[in-house]
Amino acid sequence: MKKILIGAAIFLTAISGNLPSKKYSSITVIGDSIASGYGLSEYVSGNNYSALDSFGNLLGAESEEYENYAVDGRRSDELLAAFSDKNDPLVRSVSDADNVIISIGGNDFLKPMLDAIKMQALTDTDFFLSILEGDISAGNISEYSNGILQSALTAAREVDVDGTIGNIRRITEKISSLNPDTRVILLTVYDPFAGNVLLAAAAEAAEEKLAELNGGIKSLAGGNIFAADIYEVFKGHEAGYTNIARLDIHPSSAGHYKIYETITEILNTPVESRHQVKKRHQSTKRIW
Hints:
Layout: H1 2-15, E1 24-31, H2 33-36, H3 55-60, E2 63-68, H4 76-82, H5 89-96, E3 99-103, H6 106-123, H7 125-132, H8 138-157, H9 161-178, E4 183-187, H10 200-219, E5 225-228, H11 230-234, H12 238-241, E6 242-243, E7 248-251, H13 253-267, H14 274-284
Helix pairs in contact: 4-9, 6-8, 6-10, 8-10, 9-10
């Protein structure tokens, strides 16, 4: 239905003689709920095109062809497994796209920590009773924060960072084998807990593991593979760029726009295809 509506719009615009030019040829977005638009006010579960202010749909509005195969809750191993099914529409889309944008790793890392924090919050009745009674002292916050820290540390220790990086590396290899000339943009993982007083301990627990994960993601950059450092873009602005105030780690509308801006900087950087590189090398080869 989406393609039919887009096709009809293009046809009507074409016969009017005002066919708009698009900045980008084709973009495919894959990954998790950060890429689907989850957490935005207009988002409808299972419809990645519903939230017009998601970074994917902002890019899609400027692309001749745009598809979004992100899946809420998807982990890196699940995205990797999707490439083993040749009939998966994701595989066909990636094979044809000039640009592939990947948001993955948050569910491997952030979701287990958030689940642990929520469980701690639900069981810490004394803290919430003090909130109801208006007794929010530094001591109460410190005690609650320590409980959060222990829960977050336990969850962080169980994260297999090397395994996640390995999955992401194999995903890029799969894409390169399907479509050698496509530009691949990997998003680093931001820390939504930073900047929140009650969750400061969780941010502390996340920092070391996030540094390892993001370092691994950035190490994959080279050639047609780029890293969009969303961690650095969000740093110091987590409260405004995420929905963490309501215990939702996903980006806010402002956060999605910053992701969009970061990606467009990369998309606007010319990339030579392997064919172009080979041709340039041949033309500069010395003839004896």
